[in-house]
Amino acid sequence: MTLIERDHLLAHIQDLITDHGTVRVLGQILKLKLMRRKPKRAIRLPMNPHIHRDIGLPPAHKPPDPYKFLL
Question: For the CA atoms of the chain, what is the radius of gyration?
């Protein structure tokens, strides 16, 4: 961050402090800094087994053993 950017940012923070008050602005800054951000979960859509195989993924479930009934 350059000196000009810091001055510009400081001017905005000072404007916020004059509009809303020191306690409120600093409270919000601390809240944003200390708050944990929840990671977004990847949405898993059901896929056709053929698409699974075409893109090189392992099968979603193991196929049944065809010789198991013979034992």
Answer: 28
Buried-exposed string 45-62: b where 16+ CB fall within 10 A, e elsewhere: eeeeeeeeeeeeeeeeee
The type of residue at 4 is I
CB 60 within 8 A of CB 49: yes
pLDDT digit string, tens, across residues 16-52: 999 999 999 999 989 988 887 777 777 777 778 788 7
Q: What is the DSSP string of the chain?
A: --HHHHHHHHHHHHHHHHHH-HHHHHHHHHHHHHPPPPPPPPP-----HHHHHHTTPPPSSPPPPTTGGG-
